[in-house]
Backbone:
């Protein structure tokens, strides 16, 4: 465990008790049963009141400027209980784009709303179902006084409820990020109902016109896109760490109580070793996630490498732990009444988010120069 | 078979092949070709279309849905070679076996071995015709892997047993006509106090509550028995000797499952899905090399699995299920699950749709069968229990209970 400052441990404890008391898995289940749009406005309100929506936003724009490690701790704790909220999309991914690439005006226009939780923002990069930022087909053409965007974005998290969408498109000189408001007439959003019951949308951009002031940073700057993506990747890895930790603990608890053959299952060595293996993997994952979060806060040049390390390790670990959760619960783990199904469904979505394990292994190799 | 008989045999087989071909041409509605839907058959209770109903009736009457079972009980009475010919001819035109379910996979072979003549004549022909749906009343809340811990009580009341207790995870319980169940007839002995009975699900006192699965469907149930009268003639074998029969049935279940789930083969080969969804480089290779390697590893292992299954089947010559059924069940389950995980990975987010717009029916079915498939390493004796069987019974590594 990274050495946390007193404030960071306080934040983590607060997030943990809030998630367990105010946002238990039962709350997610109710939301799912209602077939609601993916998150609960009241809980979002209390997330905003606690200031978590502004953790990485500078103080001058209404945030706390508390750092990514802090936000990572909150994402981990809330993901443990499957809290459905736009925190990762809005307060991390889209906020990073504005903080890193936004002009003073853009920041002043959007960041206070995001920090206060009134504005929900999201990041839309991929055109298709697999992460592929080098191959963006959505095009941006410079026209008089602005840009025309044409193309598609797939499976945009919180895409149905976001008021502000940070959209990646390809212009002549390379990738660029644009701020698009949800009511832009060139934008059509279609909901996608996924196994994890969260909010996703497909976006269609048809001659979508934005002013010059909607461009974030320079057009054709792959570094900005990369830096924003790395933050999103590390945020997803932090959520995955939370999911894996909770899935593991729930399973461990079960094995200590379920009796078969006149003994608790925890006494069977074959199962002890399976649990020991998962525990080991989760410990390795925790180190990767924390180092990656710290690397953002410290402007570490190794950040891209650590982001890929964290995300790939998170994918492999959560994949293993979520499968073991179902298997080791036996029949009960196959029922919808049990939580195991929620964890395995959410796990696969996050495995896909911002690059799966093989994407990040490949990237790690490229970044390492081979 | 001596040398002189061999050509005669050859001729008879050729004639049989011709007969099969003609019969299939006359009876298999070609619009049903390759429409076998494994998931729907295990998970759902979808009504058959009129041509499918007709096909089922024809196969049922012919007895070819249960080709190796004796003709006197309604089976096909075919030998191994003939069965193979039948399967080949069916595969060639995309015909599938419409007769299935637990009656065929598990109960029939068990009854053939242990039941009385009356019981065989009463219960096997309707299984061959696919008329009666059976469910399996084994598991209880406190008796899963440790099946012999079962508590459902059957008290001797002279001409019948009075049955009280609860079964759980009863697949298809809400649709079943009959149930084969393990019940406790003696509370003093664990294994030697269990009996194997056949229960008509319409008997008063049986209540079924469907349980929803993570895949969103409700294919299994909690089944409650309150003062249910089961006539003594429905006892299979001797009283308190049901454990042996029940275990034997599980062996049939395993053998069938390893073949039945087709070792991850259903839905076409994995690399075809990859070719459909993924980009290729200029040499025609998948761009995602890491995934390419894992797909290859899967397909090679699947080949090894099939070769092993073939070798085992050859060795047992269709006789008693071998100890190898544990190996086949585990590898078969692994193949099913690995295939689903890899195709999910191939499709990315497109492979995780739940309902509504934006997904093909196959994609949505893929999500559900990925989740449903997590059960194949749990039921019929979990993967861990199979490994215990391999370690203890095959390798002699005695140790912990279970
Ligand atoms: C989809 C589905 C359909 C089913 N259909 C039927 C049906 O029709 N009829 C019926 O009777 N039952 C059915 N079952 C029940 C199934 O047979 C049981 O779930 C299975 O026997 C496991 O029992 P359990 O669920 O109580 O798990 P448990 O026995 O509690 O096992 C939990 C975990 O511990 C492991 N474990 C247990 N003992 C040991 C040990 N000694 N060493 C190492 N690991 C161990 C198990 O492998 C498992 O991973 C079905 C189950 C499923 C999931």
Residues:
């Amino acid at each position: 465990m990274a050495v946390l400052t007193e404030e960071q441990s306080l934040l983590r404890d607060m997030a943990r008790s809030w998630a367990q008391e105010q946002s238990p898995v039962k709350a997610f289940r109710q939301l799912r049963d209602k077939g609601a749009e993916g998150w609960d406005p009241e809980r979002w309100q209390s997330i905003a009141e606690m200031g978590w929506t502004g953790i990485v936003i500078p103080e001058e724009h209404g945030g706390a400027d508390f750092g990514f490690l802090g936000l990572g701790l909150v994402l981990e704790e809330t993901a443990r209980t499957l809290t459905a909220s736009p925190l990762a999309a809005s307060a991390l991914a889209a906020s990073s784009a504005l903080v890193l690439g936004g002009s003073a005006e853009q920041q002043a226009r959007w960041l206070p709303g995001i920090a206060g939780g009134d504005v929900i923002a999201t990041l839309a990069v991929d055109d298709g179902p697999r992460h592929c930022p080098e191959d963006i087909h959505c095009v941006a053409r410079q026209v008089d006084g602005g840009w025309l965007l044409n193309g598609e974005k797939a499976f945009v998290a919180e895409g149905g409820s976001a008021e502000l969408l940070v959209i990646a498109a390809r212009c002549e000189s390379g990738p660029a990020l644009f701020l698009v408001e949800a009511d832009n007439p060139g934008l059509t959003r279609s909901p996608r109902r996924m196994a994890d019951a969260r909010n996703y949308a497909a976006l269609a951009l048809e001659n979508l016109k934005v002013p010059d002031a909607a461009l974030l940073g320079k057009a054709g700057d792959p570094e900005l896109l990369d830096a924003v993506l790395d933050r999103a990747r590390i945020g997803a890895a932090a959520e995955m760490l939370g999911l894996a930790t909770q899935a593991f603990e729930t399973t461990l608890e079960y094995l200590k109580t379920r009796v078969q053959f006149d003994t608790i299952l925890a006494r069977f060595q074959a199962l002890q070793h399976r649990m020991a293996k998962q525990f080991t993997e989760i410990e390795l994952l925790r180190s990767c996630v924390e180092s990656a979060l710290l690397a953002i806060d410290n402007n570490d040049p190794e950040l891209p490498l650590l982001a890929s390390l964290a995300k790939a390790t998170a994918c492999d670990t959560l994949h293993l732990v979520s499968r073991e959760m179902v298997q080791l619960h036996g029949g009960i783990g196959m029922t919808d009444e049990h939580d195991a199904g929620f964890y395995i469904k959410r796990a696969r979505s996050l495995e896909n988010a911002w690059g799966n394990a093989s994407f990040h292994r490949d990237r790690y190799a490229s970044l390492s120069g081979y | 078979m001596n040398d002189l008989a061999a050509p005669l045999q050859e001729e008879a087989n050729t004639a049989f092949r011709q007969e099969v071909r003609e019969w299939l041409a006359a009876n298999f509605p070609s619009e049903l070709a390759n429409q076998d839907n494994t998931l729907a058959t295990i998970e759902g209770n979808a009504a058959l279309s009129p041509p499918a109903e007709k096909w089922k009736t024809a196969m049922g009457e012919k007895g070819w849905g249960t080709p190796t079972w004796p003709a006197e009980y309604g089976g096909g009475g075919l030998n191994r070679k003939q069965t193979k010919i039948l399967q080949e001819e069916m595969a060639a035109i995309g015909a599938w076996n419409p007769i299935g379910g637990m009656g065929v996979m598990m109960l029939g072979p068990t009854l053939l071995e242990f039941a009385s003549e009356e019981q065989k004549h009463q219960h096997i022909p309707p299984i061959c015709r696919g008329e009666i749906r059976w469910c399996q009343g084994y598991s209880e809340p406190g008796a899963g892997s440790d099946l012999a811990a079962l508590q459902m009580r059957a008290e001797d009341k002279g001409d019948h047993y009075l049955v009280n207790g609860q079964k759980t995870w009863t697949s298809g319980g809400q649709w079943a006509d009959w149930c084969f169940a393990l019940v406790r007839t003696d509370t003093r002995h664990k294994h030697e106090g269990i009996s194997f009975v056949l229960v008509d699900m319409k008997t008063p006192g049986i209540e079924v509550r469907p349980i929803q699965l993570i895949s969103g469907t409700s294919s299994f149930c909690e089944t409650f028995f309150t003062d249910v009268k089961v006539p003594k003639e429905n006892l299979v074998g001797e009283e308190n000797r049901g454990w042996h029969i029940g275990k034997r049935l599980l062996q049939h279940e395993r053998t069938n499952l390893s073949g039945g789930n087709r070792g991850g083969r259903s839905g076409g080969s994995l690399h075809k899905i990859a070719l459909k969804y993924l980009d290729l480089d200029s040499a025609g290779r998948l761009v995602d090399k890491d995934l390419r390697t894992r797909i290859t590893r899967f397909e090679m292992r699947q080949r090894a699995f099939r070769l092993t299954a073939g070798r085992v089947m050859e060795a047992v010559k269709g006789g008693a299920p071998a100890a190898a059924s544990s190996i086949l069940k585990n590898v078969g389950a692994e193949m099913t699950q690995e295939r689903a995980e890899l195709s999910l990975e191939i499709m990315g987010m497109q492979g995780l749709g739940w309902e509504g717009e934006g997904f093909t029916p196959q994609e949505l079915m893929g999500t559900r069968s990925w989740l449903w498939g997590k059960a194949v390493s749990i039921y019929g004796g979990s993967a861990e229990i199979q490994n215990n069987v391999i370690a203890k019974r095959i390798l002699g590594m005695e140790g912990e209970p279970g």
Q: What stands out?
A: Chain A touches chain B through 51 residues (CB under 8 Å). Residues 18 and 228 of chain A are 28 Å apart (CA to CA). The longest strand of chain A covers residues 199-211.
